[in-house]
Amino acid sequence: MTELLTDTRTAPPRAAAPAGNGSPPPPAARGTRRRLGPGRTVPFGRLIGPVLVVALWWAASATGQLDPRILSSPGTVLSTAADLVADGRLQDNVLVSLQRAGLGLFFGVIAGVLLAVAAGLSRTGEYLFDGPLQIKRAIPSLAMLPLLILWLGIGEQMKVTVIALGVAVNMYINTYASLTGIDSRYVELAEGLDLSRAQFIRKVVVPGSLPGFFVGLRLGVTASWLGLIVVEQVNATSGIGYMMFQAQQYAQSDVIIVGLVAYGIFGFASDAAVRAVERKVLSWRRTLAG
Q1: Are 204 and 186 within 8 A, CB to CB?
Q2: Taking the C-alpha atoms of 7, 9, 12 and 16 in order, what is their torsion angle to the nearest 10 degrees?
Q3: Which residue, 64, 193, 53, 200, is CA-closest to 121?
Q4: Tell me: the pLDDT tens digits for 153-165?
């Protein structure tokens, strides 16, 4: 490889081939080079899909193609949301749900990252933690719900624990995979430079594991909302899920749709926030995502 690069750099430039000899023209003569990537980033481009879905929903409702008994129209949902805000029900339930999801996400991220670091940087940690966590990966957190209710009861502790378990597994799997996927040549280089353990972690481990960390964080945010939907329907007295469960008893489909829209908005916004932080922190990478 070195000889090839040397020959390429020292070789004299070739003379341009005369026109009409059958050889293809140089790239500059063929016009603008074709782009093979996904193209330029459009501001707020990720909103196009959700806006189109709402537009189709509105059009189907307005033309009578969608039975309001099956799915309420966007106008009805907006009116119901305004009524829920006016009497304070929506914001009170939203705050409770955000608190549960936030606590579960916080504890899950910390636990998942600590376990990934312990398993990724130590053979002993790998032997102790990786096996049980891979087994837990195959067992959905919601399948453990009956056992967690027996252990922790039906209060807030159980709800936060269910959410944290789902988040922790996603964080562990992706961060651990990113850690163990660091090129061994960087480790050898750090050893050759006689870096300390702290310097090795700061200059090699952290940059190498950040891509997997952010993938796990995005999946963890989604897992926190998925877990929240379920636990808020288990003997809850507040939260978006409880509001939806109560609406189901009285066939209030518009209230159910308000709850689903709230879940969707928070999920989309949280994922967008993680993406923005990821682009900022990993700005040194050149990827198709830009």
Answers
A1: yes
A2: 110
A3: 200
A4: 888 899 999 999 9
Tell me what pLDDT residue 188 has. 84
Distances (CA, A) of 76 to 12, 83, 92, 214: 74, 11, 21, 38
Structure tokens at 142: 């919601």
* CA proximity to 97, closest of 232, 210, 221: 232
Residue 222: pLDDT over 60 = yes
Neighbours of 160 (CB within 10 A): 25
Q: Tokens for 285?
A: 């990478």
Contact 268/275 with Cβ under 8 angstroms? no
What pLDDT, on a 0 to 100 scale, did the predictor assign at position 72? 83
CA–CA separation, 65 and 83 (whole Å)? 26
pLDDT level of residue 7 (50, 70, 90 thresholds): very low
pLDDT band at 101 (very low <50, low <70, confident <90, very high): very high
Task: Burial-class residue 232 by CB neighbours within 10 Å (0-12, 13-18, 19+).
Answer: buried
Q: State the sign of the Cα–Cα–Cα–Cα dihedral 284, 178, 138, 232.
A: negative
Contact between residue 211 and residue 283 where contact means Cβ atoms under 8 Å apart? no
Residue, of 169 and 249, whose pLDDT is higher? 169
pLDDT tens per residue, range 233-242: 777 788 998 8
- CA distance to 61, 111, 171, per residue, from 136 (Å): 44, 14, 13
Nearest to 131 by CA among 83, 97, 101, 176: 176
Which of the pair, 66 or 115, is modelled with greater confidence? 115
CA distance 245 to 251: 10
Cα(176)–Cα(236) distance, integer angstroms: 35
Alpha-carbon distance 198 to 177, whole Å?
21
